[in-house]
Amino acid sequence: MRLFTGFYPILYVVLASSIIGFGTSCTQTKQQIDSPINFEPAYSLFVSKESVNNFVMIDSTWQQLASFSPPHAGFNREFIQRKGFIYSVNPENDYLIQYRISSMGLQAMDSIKVVNDNIEQYHWKNNSDTLLISNVVHGDIETCSFYEIDTKTFSLIREAQLPIPPAVNDFNILSLGLVRYDNDKLWIAFAYSKMLGHNEYTTLDTMYYRTLDFASLRVLSEQKDPRSTYPGGINTIQTYSGTAENGDFYFTSGPGIAAGNNIEQPSAIFRKKKGSDEVDTTYMVNISAQTGNHAYGFWYVGNGKAIVRGERSDKYTDFSNHHAVYQFEYYLADLANGKLQKLDLPLDKGTRKENVVQVGADLYIAIDDEKENHTVWQYNLESGKITAHLTPDFPIDYQLRLDKLK
Amino acid sequence: MYYLCNIEEMKITKELLERYELGQCTEQEATAVSLWLDSTSLSLDGDDEQEADIAEDIIEDLLIEQEMWQHISAYMQESAAKSNIPERSENSNAVKLAKNNDPTVKFAALIAIAASLLIILGMGWWFYPTTASKEHLFNASNSDKAVMLWKEDSFEFTLSKNSSASINLQSGNMAISGDVLFSPKKDIKLYDKHNNTSLDFRQGEVYFISTDPDTSELVVYSKSQLEYLPPILRKHIRKQFHLT
């Protein structure tokens, strides 16, 4: 009898725990994390908790998860990912390092010395294995370094300077917003900013575009577009452009306080038609006119549609808390008629994120909401259905990136 | 500096402070102690060479010290109240109480001794920063070079042009003008003295610190947080400190 009297309370506790556990799991199922990886990773989350970054690898069924640390303390979310390889500049020594994703983490394979750690633009030439990288090198006079790299052999094909003017009047901070190879030409969009005070700046109210001959880097043409400013943005951090099935190229501008800070101008979508060296001046989707806010982030998702990530100016005070407040809304933009449809997703935080992945008709969007859920949501473009898809059981403040690895 | 004259005229002793807290001072003594407690400088050693910044730090130090003193006082009053119980009933003094075999009285005596020890320790703690503040003050300024680097045992400072930084390592108060990079070699907790905020700095991290010109608050970004800033501000910071 003693055995039973001693055993019953334990039984009650186990039963109660099971009920509580069941109740909790009904409201939010957190996916357990394993380590090391014993599956083929298909997706990766790059997450941050109190400024400590980690990778969470996910299998193709979204059922198995494993985590590992980045290769060094200075490794941040500004990396390039393609075909199971990751490319990142080590800020300590300015080497661009090629890593392979392995079961133990990122395995360094090879490296190339670059001028600085500040990759502003990367682009896969003709969607091949040739990587084009552009950096602005800061100094009394801004210059642009350009690297052409064969990632198959990880060797430098060419290192050159891009002929981009360092300043316009006293606007002496140059930003490269877009770099794109097309038909033996290199097309570059850029803008100029200047400091107004201690922590204040603004950007000149014009988007600049230049077309260069790819082989010689000679300037073929230049276009000034006053409809907005700060075209594109640093694309190792977030995507700001996409190419439609017919070859037309779409991109956004970012004059909001978190980018160009010329807030009277609109955040908008622009188009450069296939085969043309010029941006189409007859086409513009004014995002700000529809949402009353600025936007940062653009992902083309097929069939003339794109996802736009927009801020809420009523939620933040200034850029000091811009990244920390829950304010970001997601819109489905119809690029043909210019209509924006707000998606039924929780408000997200983080000024810039690379957090939209497409698999067929499904979009996966990693959102950090105000209930402290850090969840990958699934949005089916055909049915319009939106569901919580995956919540990793892992310490997270921000899901900075969601990548499809293959 | 006129406070120093008042202080020099006073003979503030441990006994006087004890009597002050027990309410046994004369009116003149009580006024002297009050003035001493309210004074902005406790430079009893007559050191009158401290500059305005250091004096400000000491005011902050004093506030902390007075708060500490209030805690000690509260403890003293509590012990005095306890020791007064047998005093009232037996009309005796503390020395006699020590001879009393009553365990309550023994306990009260122990409390009194403990309180006295606390006062002595408190006094030691109190006087320590006034003599140590000079050697625990870090001061750096850069008025003409593009960037200047200061290396200390526990941290490094990189100052951009027209910038200055000071830390009172005793109180932890930090003051910055302009733009600086701060690289602690150990975990350090410092205080933004103008805004009563504490700042935790981690070993191995690099911090960009500036003062908001509108609010005079310290604006602190760790190097890893720089990625959350608008890219143009980040470029500006990189440019200032030659981080490219």
- Distance between the first and last residues' Cα of chain A: 61 Å
Give, in order, the helices and strands of chain B: HHHHHHEEEEEEEEEEH
The amount of beta strand of chain B, in percent, is 15-25%
Number of strands of chain A: 30
Largest sheet of chain A: 5 strands, mixed
Task: Provide structural commentary.
Chain A: This is DUF4374 domain-containing protein. The complex is a heterodimer of chains A (406) and B (244). Chain A has helices spanning 2-27, 287-291, 319-322, and strands spanning 30-31, 43-49, 52-58, 65-68, 80-82, 85-90, 95-102, 105-113, 119-124, 130-137, 143-150, 155-161, 173-182, 185-195, 201-203, 207-213, 219-225, 241-243, 249-252, 268-272, 285-286, 295-302, 305-310, 329-334, 340-342, 356-359, 362-368, 374-380, 386-392, 398-404. Chain A has 406 residues and is mainly beta. In chain A, strands 1-29-28-27-26 form a five-stranded mixed beta sheet, with no helix packed on it. In chain A, strands 13, 14, 15, 16 and 17 form a five-stranded antiparallel beta sheet that branches. Chain A is globular and about 55 Å long. Chain A starts with a helix and ends with a strand. Chain B has two domains: 2-132, no CATH class; 137-240, no CATH class. Chain B is of the alpha+beta class. In chain B, the strands form two sheets. In chain B, strands 1-4-5-7-8 form a five-stranded mixed beta sheet, covered by helices on one side. Chain B contains seven helices and ten strands. Classes of the chains: A mainly beta (406), B alpha+beta (244). The interface between A and B is medium-sized, with 35 and 22 residues.
